[in-house]
Amino acid sequence: MPALHDLGYRSLFAHPELVRELITDFTPFKLLDEAALSSLERVNPAYVSERLSAREDDIVWRVRLGDELLYVYILLECQSGVDRWMALRMQTYIGLLYQDLVKGHALSPGLLLPPVLPLVFYNGSPHWSASMDLAGLLMQAPAELAALQPAQRYVLIDQQRLDPTALETNATLLALLFRLELSSAPDVLRKVAPALTAWFHEAPQASLRRSVEVWVNHLLARRPGKSGPFTCNSVKEVADMGRKFETWAEEFEEIGFQKGSAEGIAKGEAKGKAEGKEEGKAEGQVIALRGVLGSLLRSRFGELPAPVTQRIDQATQAELEQWFERSLNAPSLQAVFDARPA
Prior knowledge:
By secondary structure, the protein is of the alpha/beta class. Helix content is 49%, strand content 9%.
């Protein structure tokens, strides 16, 4: 299951503005620099094959460039270690995407498959050491078979090793959020908080504002014993934002990229066994996710009825993640819990 912070990034990359910023500012490709936001369309990546389960956690966008289509496949590797087999995984997922396009008769008039830009967004602590080319995972083939071997590459965006100077001179929202996560407490208070306060003050579209709030709440979810969700739903709350950051600033350095909340980790460590620690971390993830989901629902729909709170408290991680996805755009509180698959 995806880590808690993955959900925050999924909420960000559900917006074409931030997908375009990710490509234009954090990859060497310039083909989307002039692309209109209306040319980007989110694609449902729930592919099912005979042996592989649905890939509902991936992010896929379709971009129209003139008369041609480009698919952007984003894999989130948040708060995780290095996956040696990433190039193989990417080949598999793109194969499922192509298979889905063939089954859905979504090819070009010439029945050709569209190009794909495969991106891996990584914010784990270890340096990324996995091969970015499938060839690096294959045994050397005999010369006469070399041309028949599969090939696949992907682009790595390693967030923790982005150039701080380049980030500071980048005026985009995505760069600002990266700085919020990566900066020291003094820089958060002195530079990042005022810039983010100004962004909220300009009253961006409601859905993007809500996703930024969700992302920040995920970032803060690991603060043990701290009170109050992050919201900016009114002029007064925007004015208070600087004071909120002043209260939180010293905690940013402690957030890091550890899995689970402090409560879950403490429970696991108290068991004194490795399996107990892992169980505690998983429990901490669920505890933190319950808190963030509750905060998001309250910011959208007001105070929650007691039956809803009880349902959240008793839910599994899979249920919480499903409700989180629905809550981003659901028209009502009831729709979050009662939505049915199409």
